Amino acid sequence: MPLPELTHQLPMDVEEFLVWMTADQGRAANTIAAYRRDLRGYVGWLDERGASLRTVSTADLEEFIATRRSTGAAASSIARQLAAIRMLHRYLVVEADTRVDDPTADLEGVRVPSGLPKPLSEEQVLALLDAVVATGPLAVRDRALLELLYATGARISEACGLSMGEIDFDQRLVRLFGKGAKERIVPYGRPAAAALEEWFSPRGRALLVPDQWRRRSDAEAVFLNGRGQRLTRQAAWAIVRRYGRAAGITGDLSPHVLRHTCATHLLDHGADLRVVQEMLGHASISTTQVYTQVSQERLWDVYRAAHPRATRR
Question: Three-state SS for 159?
Fold first, then answer.
Protein backbone atom coordinates (compact mmCIF):
# COMPACT_ATOMS: atom_id res chain seq x y z
CA MET A 1 0.00 0.00 0.00
CA PRO A 2 1.59 3.33 -1.04
CA LEU A 3 2.24 6.09 1.44
CA PRO A 4 -0.51 8.69 1.72
CA GLU A 5 0.09 12.18 0.40
CA LEU A 6 -1.45 15.35 1.74
CA THR A 7 -3.81 17.10 -0.60
CA HIS A 8 -3.77 20.31 1.47
CA GLN A 9 -0.92 22.68 2.15
CA LEU A 10 2.20 21.55 3.92
CA PRO A 11 2.66 22.61 7.56
CA MET A 12 4.16 26.05 8.08
CA ASP A 13 7.29 24.45 9.56
CA VAL A 14 7.96 22.71 6.25
CA GLU A 15 7.20 25.78 4.14
CA GLU A 16 9.56 27.89 6.26
CA PHE A 17 12.22 25.20 5.96
CA LEU A 18 11.93 25.25 2.15
CA VAL A 19 12.18 29.04 2.11
CA TRP A 20 15.29 28.81 4.30
CA MET A 21 16.85 26.18 2.03
CA THR A 22 16.25 28.47 -0.95
CA ALA A 23 17.25 31.83 0.51
CA ASP A 24 19.96 30.88 3.00
CA GLN A 25 21.37 27.65 1.55
CA GLY A 26 21.05 28.52 -2.13
CA ARG A 27 19.36 25.29 -3.18
CA ALA A 28 18.17 25.16 -6.79
CA ALA A 29 14.49 25.15 -7.74
CA ASN A 30 14.61 21.50 -8.86
CA THR A 31 16.15 20.49 -5.53
CA ILE A 32 13.47 22.35 -3.58
CA ALA A 33 10.77 20.67 -5.68
CA ALA A 34 12.28 17.25 -4.83
CA TYR A 35 12.37 18.14 -1.09
CA ARG A 36 8.75 19.21 -1.28
CA ARG A 37 7.67 15.90 -2.83
CA ASP A 38 9.62 13.83 -0.32
CA LEU A 39 8.43 15.82 2.68
CA ARG A 40 4.81 15.75 1.48
CA GLY A 41 4.87 11.95 1.60
CA TYR A 42 6.48 12.01 5.05
CA VAL A 43 4.04 14.54 6.51
CA GLY A 44 1.15 12.64 4.97
CA TRP A 45 2.28 9.49 6.76
CA LEU A 46 2.55 11.37 10.06
CA ASP A 47 -0.88 12.91 9.57
CA GLU A 48 -2.48 9.51 9.04
CA ARG A 49 -0.90 8.27 12.29
CA GLY A 50 -2.05 11.31 14.25
CA ALA A 51 1.56 12.42 14.76
CA SER A 52 3.30 15.67 13.85
CA LEU A 53 6.75 17.04 13.15
CA ARG A 54 6.97 18.26 16.74
CA THR A 55 6.02 14.94 18.33
CA VAL A 56 7.48 12.28 16.00
CA SER A 57 10.02 9.97 17.67
CA THR A 58 12.95 7.93 16.46
CA ALA A 59 10.81 4.79 16.78
CA ASP A 60 8.18 6.41 14.55
CA LEU A 61 10.82 7.17 11.94
CA GLU A 62 12.08 3.58 12.04
CA GLU A 63 8.52 2.45 11.37
CA PHE A 64 8.27 4.98 8.52
CA ILE A 65 11.38 3.50 6.87
CA ALA A 66 10.00 0.00 7.34
CA THR A 67 6.74 1.08 5.70
CA ARG A 68 8.62 2.52 2.74
CA ARG A 69 10.54 -0.73 2.34
CA SER A 70 7.38 -2.79 2.53
CA THR A 71 5.91 -0.86 -0.40
CA GLY A 72 8.88 -1.89 -2.56
CA ALA A 73 10.50 1.54 -2.68
CA ALA A 74 14.11 1.50 -3.89
CA ALA A 75 16.83 2.00 -1.30
CA SER A 76 18.06 5.07 -3.18
CA SER A 77 14.56 6.60 -3.05
CA ILE A 78 14.25 5.96 0.69
CA ALA A 79 17.75 7.33 1.33
CA ARG A 80 16.97 10.50 -0.63
CA GLN A 81 13.72 11.04 1.27
CA LEU A 82 15.45 10.36 4.58
CA ALA A 83 18.09 12.97 3.74
CA ALA A 84 15.37 15.59 3.33
CA ILE A 85 13.74 14.50 6.60
CA ARG A 86 17.07 14.75 8.45
CA MET A 87 17.67 18.28 7.13
CA LEU A 88 14.15 19.31 8.12
CA HIS A 89 14.47 18.07 11.69
CA ARG A 90 17.94 19.55 12.04
CA TYR A 91 16.46 22.88 10.92
CA LEU A 92 13.64 22.61 13.47
CA VAL A 93 16.20 22.22 16.27
CA VAL A 94 19.00 24.57 15.21
CA GLU A 95 17.32 27.29 13.13
CA ALA A 96 13.61 27.36 13.99
CA ASP A 97 14.01 26.36 17.65
CA THR A 98 10.68 24.53 17.58
CA ARG A 99 12.10 21.27 18.94
CA VAL A 100 14.78 20.62 21.55
CA ASP A 101 15.62 17.15 20.22
CA ASP A 102 16.35 15.72 16.78
CA PRO A 103 14.57 12.35 16.30
CA THR A 104 16.81 11.57 13.30
CA ALA A 105 20.08 11.95 15.25
CA ASP A 106 20.28 8.28 16.27
CA LEU A 107 18.45 6.94 13.24
CA GLU A 108 20.37 4.35 11.28
CA GLY A 109 20.94 5.28 7.65
CA VAL A 110 19.63 3.39 4.65
CA ARG A 111 22.36 1.52 2.84
CA VAL A 112 22.35 2.14 -0.90
CA PRO A 113 24.23 -0.37 -3.08
CA SER A 114 27.35 1.32 -4.40
CA GLY A 115 28.17 1.46 -8.05
CA LEU A 116 28.43 3.80 -10.97
CA PRO A 117 27.01 3.49 -14.46
CA LYS A 118 29.55 1.82 -16.70
CA PRO A 119 31.38 4.51 -18.67
CA LEU A 120 31.52 4.33 -22.44
CA SER A 121 34.74 3.42 -24.16
CA GLU A 122 36.36 6.02 -26.40
CA GLU A 123 35.23 3.97 -29.39
CA GLN A 124 31.64 4.02 -28.15
CA VAL A 125 31.77 7.79 -27.71
CA LEU A 126 32.92 8.17 -31.31
CA ALA A 127 30.12 5.84 -32.46
CA LEU A 128 27.59 7.91 -30.48
CA LEU A 129 28.75 11.16 -32.07
CA ASP A 130 28.94 9.62 -35.53
CA ALA A 131 25.34 8.44 -35.17
CA VAL A 132 24.25 12.02 -35.88
CA VAL A 133 24.10 11.72 -39.66
CA ALA A 134 21.31 14.14 -40.63
CA THR A 135 22.09 17.72 -41.61
CA GLY A 136 18.96 19.61 -40.51
CA PRO A 137 18.96 22.13 -37.64
CA LEU A 138 17.76 19.57 -35.06
CA ALA A 139 20.60 17.20 -35.95
CA VAL A 140 23.09 20.10 -35.79
CA ARG A 141 21.75 20.88 -32.32
CA ASP A 142 21.96 17.26 -31.22
CA ARG A 143 25.59 16.99 -32.29
CA ALA A 144 26.47 20.18 -30.40
CA LEU A 145 24.65 18.95 -27.28
CA LEU A 146 26.37 15.54 -27.29
CA GLU A 147 29.79 17.07 -27.92
CA LEU A 148 29.35 19.58 -25.11
CA LEU A 149 28.12 16.99 -22.60
CA TYR A 150 31.10 14.74 -23.27
CA ALA A 151 33.60 17.60 -23.45
CA THR A 152 32.62 19.26 -20.17
CA GLY A 153 30.99 16.56 -18.04
CA ALA A 154 28.10 18.98 -17.52
CA ARG A 155 24.93 17.85 -15.81
CA ILE A 156 21.99 17.78 -18.19
CA SER A 157 20.25 20.54 -16.21
CA GLU A 158 23.36 22.69 -16.57
CA ALA A 159 23.51 22.17 -20.34
CA CYS A 160 19.80 22.88 -20.83
CA GLY A 161 20.06 25.95 -18.59
CA LEU A 162 22.91 27.47 -20.61
CA SER A 163 22.44 30.93 -22.05
CA MET A 164 24.47 32.31 -24.94
CA GLY A 165 26.30 34.85 -22.78
CA GLU A 166 27.74 31.99 -20.73
CA ILE A 167 29.90 30.65 -23.58
CA ASP A 168 33.27 32.23 -24.44
CA PHE A 169 33.77 31.06 -28.01
CA ASP A 170 37.23 32.64 -28.36
CA GLN A 171 38.70 30.98 -25.26
CA ARG A 172 36.52 27.84 -25.56
CA LEU A 173 35.15 28.19 -22.05
CA VAL A 174 31.65 27.65 -20.69
CA ARG A 175 30.20 28.94 -17.42
CA LEU A 176 28.07 26.33 -15.67
CA PHE A 177 25.79 26.78 -12.69
CA GLY A 178 25.63 23.60 -10.64
CA LYS A 179 23.97 22.51 -7.43
CA GLY A 180 23.29 25.37 -5.04
CA ALA A 181 23.79 27.81 -7.95
CA LYS A 182 27.55 27.33 -7.62
CA GLU A 183 29.37 28.69 -10.64
CA ARG A 184 32.36 27.11 -12.38
CA ILE A 185 34.26 27.70 -15.60
CA VAL A 186 34.96 24.62 -17.74
CA PRO A 187 36.98 24.40 -20.97
CA TYR A 188 35.93 22.42 -24.03
CA GLY A 189 37.91 21.09 -26.96
CA ARG A 190 38.03 21.77 -30.68
CA PRO A 191 35.43 19.14 -31.73
CA ALA A 192 32.87 20.66 -29.35
CA ALA A 193 33.85 24.15 -30.56
CA ALA A 194 33.27 23.10 -34.17
CA ALA A 195 29.88 21.59 -33.29
CA LEU A 196 28.81 24.74 -31.44
CA GLU A 197 30.02 26.93 -34.32
CA GLU A 198 27.87 24.89 -36.69
CA TRP A 199 24.90 25.16 -34.33
CA PHE A 200 25.21 28.95 -34.18
CA SER A 201 25.66 29.24 -37.95
CA PRO A 202 22.73 30.11 -40.26
CA ARG A 203 22.23 26.34 -40.74
CA GLY A 204 21.48 25.67 -37.08
CA ARG A 205 19.86 27.61 -34.27
CA ALA A 206 18.74 30.47 -36.52
CA LEU A 207 16.33 28.13 -38.31
CA LEU A 208 14.54 27.32 -35.03
CA VAL A 209 14.10 30.92 -33.85
CA PRO A 210 10.33 31.69 -33.75
CA ASP A 211 8.68 34.84 -35.02
CA GLN A 212 7.92 35.73 -31.42
CA TRP A 213 9.60 34.34 -28.30
CA ARG A 214 7.21 32.69 -25.85
CA ARG A 215 9.45 33.54 -22.89
CA ARG A 216 12.26 36.05 -22.55
CA SER A 217 14.64 33.35 -21.29
CA ASP A 218 14.10 31.33 -24.48
CA ALA A 219 15.72 34.07 -26.56
CA GLU A 220 19.00 33.58 -24.66
CA ALA A 221 18.89 29.77 -24.53
CA VAL A 222 21.78 27.94 -26.15
CA PHE A 223 19.71 24.87 -27.03
CA LEU A 224 16.22 25.23 -28.50
CA ASN A 225 13.55 22.68 -29.31
CA GLY A 226 11.68 22.50 -32.60
CA ARG A 227 9.16 25.12 -31.38
CA GLY A 228 11.82 27.68 -30.54
CA GLN A 229 11.68 27.15 -26.78
CA ARG A 230 14.46 26.26 -24.38
CA LEU A 231 15.27 22.56 -24.60
CA THR A 232 13.99 20.66 -21.56
CA ARG A 233 15.92 18.04 -19.59
CA GLN A 234 13.43 15.38 -20.63
CA ALA A 235 13.94 16.17 -24.31
CA ALA A 236 17.72 16.15 -23.87
CA TRP A 237 17.53 12.72 -22.20
CA ALA A 238 15.55 11.44 -25.18
CA ILE A 239 18.19 12.79 -27.59
CA VAL A 240 21.01 10.97 -25.80
CA ARG A 241 19.07 7.70 -25.67
CA ARG A 242 18.01 7.90 -29.31
CA TYR A 243 21.56 8.27 -30.60
CA GLY A 244 22.77 5.64 -28.16
CA ARG A 245 20.40 3.15 -29.74
CA ALA A 246 21.45 4.27 -33.22
CA ALA A 247 25.10 3.69 -32.26
CA GLY A 248 24.32 0.17 -31.03
CA ILE A 249 25.21 0.98 -27.42
CA THR A 250 23.53 -1.53 -25.14
CA GLY A 251 22.20 -0.59 -21.74
CA ASP A 252 20.35 2.48 -20.55
CA LEU A 253 22.44 5.34 -21.89
CA SER A 254 21.78 8.67 -20.18
CA PRO A 255 23.38 12.11 -19.91
CA HIS A 256 24.73 11.02 -16.52
CA VAL A 257 26.64 8.20 -18.23
CA LEU A 258 28.29 10.80 -20.47
CA ARG A 259 29.26 12.76 -17.34
CA HIS A 260 30.82 9.62 -15.84
CA THR A 261 32.52 8.91 -19.14
CA CYS A 262 34.07 12.37 -19.32
CA ALA A 263 35.50 12.03 -15.80
CA THR A 264 36.80 8.51 -16.40
CA HIS A 265 38.51 9.41 -19.68
CA LEU A 266 40.14 12.45 -18.09
CA LEU A 267 41.63 10.28 -15.35
CA ASP A 268 42.58 7.58 -17.86
CA HIS A 269 44.70 10.16 -19.66
CA GLY A 270 46.42 11.47 -16.54
CA ALA A 271 44.23 14.38 -15.37
CA ASP A 272 44.76 15.50 -11.77
CA LEU A 273 41.93 14.48 -9.44
CA ARG A 274 41.49 18.05 -8.15
CA VAL A 275 41.11 19.33 -11.71
CA VAL A 276 38.41 16.75 -12.41
CA GLN A 277 36.69 17.73 -9.16
CA GLU A 278 36.64 21.37 -10.28
CA MET A 279 35.39 20.48 -13.77
CA LEU A 280 32.52 18.37 -12.47
CA GLY A 281 31.58 20.80 -9.72
CA HIS A 282 31.88 18.28 -6.89
CA ALA A 283 31.80 19.86 -3.44
CA SER A 284 33.92 17.04 -1.99
CA ILE A 285 36.97 15.32 -3.43
CA SER A 286 35.62 12.03 -2.07
CA THR A 287 32.83 12.18 -4.67
CA THR A 288 35.38 12.47 -7.46
CA GLN A 289 37.58 9.72 -6.01
CA VAL A 290 34.93 7.17 -6.97
CA TYR A 291 36.06 7.62 -10.56
CA THR A 292 39.61 6.57 -9.72
CA GLN A 293 38.29 3.10 -8.89
CA VAL A 294 36.50 2.94 -12.26
CA SER A 295 39.67 4.08 -14.01
CA GLN A 296 41.80 1.49 -12.17
CA GLU A 297 39.39 -1.27 -13.14
CA ARG A 298 39.68 -0.27 -16.79
CA LEU A 299 43.47 -0.15 -16.44
CA TRP A 300 43.45 -3.74 -15.16
CA ASP A 301 41.19 -4.84 -18.02
CA VAL A 302 43.65 -3.43 -20.54
CA TYR A 303 46.63 -4.91 -18.69
CA ARG A 304 45.14 -8.40 -18.47
CA ALA A 305 44.21 -8.33 -22.13
CA ALA A 306 47.51 -6.94 -23.41
CA HIS A 307 50.37 -8.10 -21.17
CA PRO A 308 51.68 -11.60 -22.02
CA ARG A 309 52.41 -12.43 -18.36
CA ALA A 310 49.40 -10.74 -16.78
CA THR A 311 47.58 -14.02 -16.05
CA ARG A 312 50.42 -16.54 -16.28
CA ARG A 313 51.36 -18.29 -13.09
Answer: helix
